[in-house]
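Can you give me the bound-state structure? Components:
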Amino acid sequence: MYAMSRFNRRVILLAGLLVPWTGQAAPWNTLGRAITADEIADWNIDVRPDGVGLPKGRGSVAEGQIIYDAQCAACHGTFGDSPQFVALAGGIGSLKTSTPQRTVGSKLNYATTLWDYINRAMPFNNSKSLAPNEVYAVVAYVLNLNGIVSADAVLDEISLPQVKMPNRDGFTLAHGMRSVHGKPDVHNVACMRNCAQEVKISAEIPPDFTQQMYGDIRAQFRQFTLQDQGAAPSPSTAAGAASAPELLKANGCGVCHGRDQGIVGPAFTDISKRYAAVADASAKLTAKIREGGSGVWGTAIMPPQSQISDVALATILNWIKSGAPSE
Amino acid sequence: MQEQSLRPGRVIAASENKLSPQYEERRRLLGGIVGTAAALFGVRATAADKAVQRLAVPPWSKQLGKPVASQPYGLPSHYESNIIRRINPGLTTTSESSVAFTPLQNLFGIITPNGLHFERNHNGLPEVDPYRHRLVVHGLAKQSKIYTMEDILRFPSVSRVHFLECGANSAMEWAAVAAPTVQYTHGMLSCAEYTGVPLSTLLDDVGYDAKRAKFILAEGADAAGLTRTLPIEMALDDVLVVYGQNGEMLRPENGYPVRLIVPGVQGVSSVKWLRRIKIGDQPWHTREETIHYTDLMPDGSSRQYTYIQEAKSVITSPSGGQQLMDKGGYYQITGLAWSGRGRIKRVDVSTDGGRNWRPTRLQEPIMPKSLTRFRCDWSWDGAPTLLQSRCIDDTGYVQPTIRQLREVRGTHSIYHNNGIQTWQVTDSGDVRDVQV
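Here's the bound-state model for the whole set.
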C-alpha cells in the first residue's frame, strides 16, 4: 500500500508538476554518453519556420544564379521548370485546378523549408556540400524564379523567415489522420445483401498497355502454378550442358575424390597423371567407374557407379584426360 | 450451391491434373507420349490413355544431395528466382529516389521475407558503417546523449509485428487504374517482426522536458537526411527504435543499422538509418511534410501531417495478372487486411462486384497495426465476375470504395488511397485490375 513503484512516484510527480523533467534513474541510464551542443553542431542542421536553426550568412539572387546554373540546372532546368525532376518554379495558384503543380512557389508554406532541404539533401549527387552563404544564394535565386523575391534580393538568417510564401495558409490540420483517435472523413457501411444495384466497370487498363509497359506479366507469378507453361526448364538444360565438375557433384564423386586431393580414393589430378600414358585409358577408367574395384590406389574400395549416364561419363573422362582443370 | 462441390480435406490436385485445354488436346493427339513435366510426375489415367503411366522416380531421389551449408546464408530455390521486388516502369525519374514494390501476389501468411520488404529511398541507398554510426537524442531534455550501436542493442528491447505501408501506396489508382498486378497497386506494403527499443525509453533516458516537449524530429543519416515531425504523444506511445527485422539485423535497404518504426503510420515517418532525434515545441514543416506527403484536396488546400494509415484490404490471390488455369472449379480467395488504428475485426469478400458479401476466415494471430491474412473458399462457375474485399477494424470503420474516397478527396491527393480493390475475372480466367 505504501510502497510505491518508481513508476507511480513519477506519475505523481508529473501530475503535480513539481519536477518538470522525466527520467528517474533507471539501471540502463549509464548507456550512451552526454554530448554537448558544440559536439552536435555539424549534425544539428534542422531549420524551423521561425528561423531557429538558420546559421549566420547571406546570399544574393545573382550569386545564386551562378551556383544554380552550375549545380542545379542540369536536373531542375534553367528556369526551374523541368518536369523530369521536381519542378521548382511555376504553378502558383494551380493547386485547386485540374492540373495541380507542386512546386516551391505553389506548395511550400515557409521559405525556411527550402533552405533546410537544399542544405541537407542537395545537390542530389553531392548533398551537404554547399556552404551556408551558397545555400542562401540558391534559395534567393529559386524564390526569384518564382517571382517571390526581387532580382536584387539578398537573403540572410533574419530576412529569410520573413519571406511570405504564396501558399502560406494552404495547409490544414482539420482532418482525422493526425492521431490514432482521429475521426475518419469517408464512410462506408458493411452491407451484406443486394448492396450495389448496378455494377459497371468504370475504368480498366487499355489493351496492350500492360504488355508494352511490363512485358509478359505472367513472368511475375510462380511459374509452376501456370500449368500450361509445359515443362519448366531443368537447371542443367537451362544453363546448357553440365560441366564435369557439376556432374561430379551431381553424382557424389566428390565424397571420395577431391580434384587435387585424395579423400577415400585418389585425387582426380593424380588419376589424370597416372593414366596419361596408358593406351586404353578410357576403357579402363570406364570399367573402373561402372564396375568398381580396388587395388590400384590401395585397399579402399571403389563402388560401382552404374547411375552415371554415358554422356556424363564421357564428359568426366575428357576432363580427366585434360588434366582435371579447376575451371 | 457452388459450395457443395467442395470437398474439404481432399488433396489439392497437383499441376499435372490441371493441364490447360490445349495441352490436354496435345496429349490426346500424341496418344500418351507426353511432355517431360507430365512424364516426370506421371499423369492420371484418362480414357484417352492407352496404358497406365507409372510414376517416374526423379533424379533427386537417387542422387546424393549437396552437403549442408552449401549455401551458408540460405537463398530461395532457383525456381523462385522471379519472386522479387520490382520497380514500376516510368514511375520515377531516377532509381536512387525511387521505390521497389513487394510481390504480394507471391507471398503467404503475413510476414514479408526480408529480401522482399518494400524499399523506398529518397537519395539512394547508403552503406552505413555500424561501428561509426551514432544516434543523438537532444533538444528539450535534461541531458542530450549520444549512443553507439552497442548502447542501443543493450537497452531493454521488445519485438512487435507491424505492417509498414507507404502513404503513397495505391497512389496510381486515385484517378484511374494504372497498374496490372497487386505488386504495383499495393506493394508499398510489408509486415515484419521488428525488434528494438521503445522510443519512450530513450526519451526518458535523456530526461525529455515533459512540460515543453510537443514534437520530435527524426532524421536519417542518408544523403537525403530525411526528416519527419512526430507529435510527442505518438513518440511516447508505441514508436520503436528498431535494429532487428524478422530475427536478424535490418537489411541496408530497410535502414541498417537502426531505424524508427512508427506503427500504423505512413512509412515515411519510420525514418531509416536514424541518426538524430530532436525534441522540440513546434512542428518543423520539412520538405517531406509540405511539398510531399501532404494530401491535396479539391479546394486546393493540403491536409498536413496525415499520419494514420486507415483500414485497407486487398485480395492477393486471385489478383491482377494472374491466370486461373481451370475454367470453373475451386479457388481459395486470400488476401491481406490492416489498420493503422488497431486490429482487423472482419474482412468480407464479394464475388459479384459488390452486390453481395460474405465474411472470410481470419488467420490468427490478429495483432494491432499488423497485417492480417484472410481466406475464403470460392467455386468459380467460369463466368466473368468481379472480386472485392472490404475490411472493418476494431473502431468499426469500414473500408470505403474508391468512389466514396473521391467524393470527399477528389483525385489529386496522391496519398492514403485505402479504397476497395476490384479484380475482374474474365471468362478466359485472366485477372485484371479494374474499377467499378
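A couple of observations. The helical segments of chain B are 21-29, 36-41, 149-154, 182-186, 199-205, 232-237, 402-409. The first helix of chain B runs from residue 21 to 29.
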